[in-house]
Design a protein that fits this description.
It is a single chain. By secondary structure, the chain is mainly alpha-helical. It has a domain of about 35 residues. The longest helix is centred in the middle third of the chain and has 11 residues.
């Protein structure tokens, strides 16, 4: 949260992005992508990706 600078968050850490007002979901998804978490785990182990409107 404090050490990894993520380009998708404007070259900020997750802590900085949250403090700047970015949505927690946006920060979480950027963090998952940056840490190479398999996409099927981004929403919780065994949980499907939410349907888009």
């Amino acid at each position: 949260m404090r050490d990894l600078v993520i380009s998708a968050l404007g070259e900020r850490t997750a802590d900085e992005a949250l403090a700047a007002g970015l949505a927690p979901r946006e920060v979480w998804l950027a963090l998952c992508a940056a840490m190479d978490v398999p996409r099927e785990r981004w929403y919780g182990a065994g949980r499907p990706e939410p349907k888009r409107d």
